[in-house]
Amino acid sequence: MTASTAKTSSLSWYEASARQRIDALVDAGSFQEFLGPEQRETSPHLAIFDLPQQFDDGIVIGRGRLGGSLVLLAAQEGRFMGGAFGEVHGAKLTGLLRAARKLKQNVLILFDTGGVRLQEANAGELAIAEIMRAVIEARRAGVDVIGLIGGRAGCYGGGSLIAGTCSSLIISEQGRISVSGPEVIETNKGVEEFDSRDRALVWRTMGGKHRYLIGGADIFVDDAASAFRQAAIEALEIKRQYDRATLEAEQKRLERRLQRFGKTADAVEIWQTIGIDEPTEIPGLPTDEFLRRTANKREDADDAR
Amino acid sequence: MTLDEILIGLFPNGGDIRVTGGLVAGTAMLAGEGPIHVLGIAQELPLGVDEACALAQRVIEIIRSGDRTPILLLVDSSSQRMSRRDELLGLNEYLAHLAKVLLLAEAAGHRTVGLLYGGSAAGAFIATALATHTLVALPGAHPAVMDLPSMARVTKLPIDVLKAKAETTPVFAPGLDNMVRTGGVHIVWDAGAPLAAQLAAVLARPARRDERDRLGAERGGRRKAAEIADRVVAIAVNSHPESQHG
Amino acid sequence: MEKLNFKLSAANLAGGTRMQVIVGVVASGNLEVLLERALPAEVCTIDVATSAHGFGAVWEAVVRDFVTRRAAGGLRISVNDGGARPDTVALRLAQGVRMIEEPEA
After folding, report:
1. Helix/strand/coil (H, E, C) string of A184-237?
2. pLDDT at residue A8, rounded to an integer
3. C:38-97 residues touching chain A, CB 8 A cutoff
4. In CATH, what is the architecture of A18-244+286-292?
5. Which fold has domain C2-101?
6. Cβ–Cβ gap A52/C20 under 8 Å
7. pLDDT, block means (10 residues), chain B with 246 residues
8. Where are the domains of chain C?
9. At what angle do helices B225-238 and A87-103 cross, to 10 degrees?
10. Residue to substitute from B224, B240, B244, interface A, most A β-carbons within 10 A
11. Quick check: helix, strand or coil at residue C81?
12. Looking at chain B, which subunits does it touch, using at least 3 CB pairs closer than 8 Å as the criterion?
């Protein structure tokens, strides 16, 4: 197995590690890591829980080229502590975004996170807030911050709020975006409210296809690194502004969503309402067919995110 | 202090502030300094799509006015609303949107001050209190990421063990003191002293970049965050191709 | 966490010119291995931080076997272990050496 990677077009985004994703995403050999594992900037808070550290604290950051253009990148490792935000992990992303504003360089955030790391909950929570502020400050300076969602841990909790500050979101079927996870809703509100073991319900409610259709994500792709790469290149080509008009448009979009769907009980009802024929077939459709059947029907968030 | 007591203490010159469905809205007069917009979430209300949308709408109206009047955001909430409906409708977008409009209001010249006087947790805390320029609190406020029994359940540790560990570090357990030490809360007000003067002091502070990580380092609750973020910026700047010669 | 440190003589210098590689992820049953070309040619050190206590003898056996079989001279190896089985450890160490021998792009 070669290390200078398997930039095979069929690399599963879901199965890949953070480092494999970056490697498959950027132009060959262009990635320069910042604060890499050899710096050993690990979490100071895991030892008291007798938990092992990871040298990069579960997030890889740096600069690379995408289709020739420089971009800053951050990739979360969803298998380390569930990709959750701790003090160091969060600060790496905060610093990257502050640098993005200074250098006017676009950013790709490869989300793979269950939210805030409980062992460092307060630090993680504050990191989320600092990151959201840094994203918005970067966007106001003309920087695009593009989120890529399709990893095993999903994009939950505070991660989902950061995703809500991004200029654009690329998602695969495997991707999930939600503030409270299925188990948390079930534990707090009961299985009647949400059966966390009903996988079909999870995907209908918070999965990639639904998010794409309701306007919670902008580009839907296959679970393949090449698809994410292509989508990221295209997303970066769009010229965006971020100002009061954007927020006014988002307010309208979100109000309209409540008016149209605020009383629906299930995603299938929403998909029906937006005009999709045979909405129950949506979860089973392969990507090409899904995109074909939903073209011009989905809710979009263009210039309103 | 009750919300009414707080409002009387803050605005001895009066104001027109209503609480409807747990959401606070109105304006008041600062002692000698002109008006202030007052918004908030009260009665430990969970923050769901409807509440976030309504609050965001109020903020946008304030931005439209262009009056550069400060905004006080009162917070006594639960966590985000935990429901199938809210997630189905994209709660993350609504909460992020609320944070965004608060940040934009600040950028448009409306100083934002958060006053945590009750509870607030997780996504609600991030979208409201933590999205203001300066967050202050009254004694008795109780911010949390997650309650300790739930943390014990998720981490599979006995609650006593977790409590013992919480004695040794401010980094995970709920509570105002921990949120102060980690830099999230700028200052805890003296409930026995005039609130109006304490608010005036906060409003008189010059607008600053986000310094919570620095504050956390000074207070010892977050010793790494500011240093790591600063180093990343330095590395990124120094390694930028245009900054390299030859 | 248990910390283990091994310093061994290596018969052969690690091939290639890469200065460092990293392999693996810290998760239950898994481990990360950081290899740095940082030592004199005839030395190999392996530092382990592990959440699984009491397996010192097993680590020693795996590590000695590794240094016997692979050209690991000059490598400073650092491991964060999440309770991986010995064969997974051996696999990651081997993967690491293969990676560091790879010609640079």
Report:
1. HHHHHHCCCCCCCCCHHHHHHHHEHHHHHHHCCCCEEECCCHHHHHHHHHHHHH
2. 53
3. 49-51, 78, 80-82, 95
4. Alpha-Beta Complex (3.90)
5. Ribosomal Protein S5; domain 2 (3.30.230)
6. no
7. 96 95 97 92 98 98 96 98 98 98 98 98 98 98 94 93 96 97 98 97 94 98 98 97 60
8. 2-101
9. 40
10. B224
11. strand
12. A
Distance CA C48, CA B102 (A): 47
Check: CB of residue C59 under 8 Å from CB of residue A85.
no
Amino acid (1-letter code) at residue C90: A
Flag whether residue A4 sits within 8 Å of chain C, measured between CB atoms: yes
A208, A173 Cβ separation under 8 angstroms: yes
Mean of pLDDT values over A175-191: 96
Interface test with A, best of B64, B75, B116, B171 (most A CBs within 10 A): B171
Give the chain A residue whose CA is nearest to the CA of C100. A3
| pLDDT score, position A23 | 97
Overall residue count recorded for chain A in this entry: 305
Quote the pLDDT of residue C58: 97
Strands A59-66 and A32-34: antiparallel
> Would you list the domain boundaries of chain A?
18-244+286-292
pLDDT of residue A3: 39
B112-116/B71-80 β-pairing: parallel
Closest-CA distance, B83 to chain A, in angstroms, reads 6
Q: In whole angstroms, how far apart are CA A186 and each of A159, A191, B156, B180?
A: 20, 5, 18, 32
Sorted by where each starts, the structural domains of chain B and their CATH numbers stand as 3-139+189-207 (3.90.226.10)
CB of A65 within 8 Å of any CB in chain C? Answer: no
Q: Which two tokens stand for residue C76?
A: 């400073």
Query: Is A38 an 8 Å CB contact of chain C?
Result: yes
pLDDT at residue A5 above 60?
Answer: no
- The neighbours of chain A, by the rule of 3 or more Cβ pairs under 8 Å, are B, C
* φ and ψ at residue B103, rounded to 5 degrees: -65, -40
